[in-house]
């Protein structure tokens, strides 16, 4: 029986994807084999020796100690795309409301005496101050054309916008697929300089922190509309606030407002609601469960942020999964030990990811415990699992 600890509410559909005969899911699980987490910060938790994986039910993993997990051979997964439609819809709604001054107009009407809201009186006389712009015919620059950004590109194109995109991590086939409605440019600078609207859809990591700062804002059109439904620190707060005050940024829509921004004119905000729909919760929970089960039962890795994605059909016997340093000669040392024990490898797959690698060995029989003990003597081996 595998113990899975739940740190947050998990949709019923996700919980039901675990076989009750094999898995025990509980918020009180001790020494868990796996963790499912939505928003709880885990940086200070103990990473017990039994822990094999952490799955973030969502996309961002900044609440998880990924580096420490890697050092201990703990796989960290996320669920890219599971909540992408929810974020896309709210980002588009926020963009439109920002360009049409929707929230400012609503607040103005709410504060009018009831009798003055009658058509022809104060509303008709004062509404012109809130006249905004249509999005049709405008240009949007999308920074990060992944799960969410690609959906933004398609939707904005269908709404009549000219779409530019920048994403150096997309492969050629994906770029070709998306190019029917998104014109890709080679640099961030070129991308953001073209848009009447600039929206960011990149993960928060060291590389992307303060991705948009004074230098980048200076390249944008005067009176640009800026949308951030990714993560707050991707934008340099001081630079954005200054640009709002000077009018360089005409409107700013964000899911991550700071206290200062909440008091500024031209800012509309929501309280981190982008992925907050029942549909997104179900999609992500099911995805999280399937990834966790496939890793526990087969050693396959899908959507990991710290291990290479790898999958291999099972043979009839034991499977040995080895998480190790990605160095010259490692694979040879592993196979030397196996052949020295007169064991025949039926299937073998090895994949690297930067400084680490993951190897799957399949056998047609069970393997002795001594194999694990001998493999652990190899310099650079981090963790070994034998799955029978």
Layout of secondary structure:
Layout lengths: L1 E5 L5 H4 L7 E4 L7 E4 L15 E4 L9 H7 L2 E3 L6 H16 L2 H9 L11 H5 L12 E5 L3 H12 L3 E5 L5 H7 L4 E2 L3 H7 L2 E4 L13 H6 L4 E5 L8 H10 L2 E6 L12 E3 L8 H21 L20 E7 L4 H11 L6 E7 L2 E7 L6 H7 L5 E7 L1
Parallel strand pairs: 1-2, 1-3, 3-4, 4-5, 6-7, 6-9, 7-8, 9-10, 10-11, 11-12
Antiparallel strand pairs: 13-15, 13-16, 14-15
Helix pairs in contact: 3-6
Average pLDDT across residues? 94
Question: What structural class do the secondary elements suggest?
Answer: alpha/beta
The N- to C-terminal Cα distance equals 14 Å
Query: Biggest sheet: strands side by side, in what order?
Result: 8-7-6-9-10-11-12
Portion of residues in beta strands equals: 15-25%
Low-pLDDT sequence parts: none
Number of helices: 13
Helical percentage: 25-40%
Which CATH architecture of the largest domain is right? 3-Layer(aba) Sandwich
Shape: elongated
CATH fold category name of the largest domain? Rossmann fold
Radius of gyration using CA atoms only: 25 Å
Q: Characterize the main sheet.
A: 7 strands, parallel
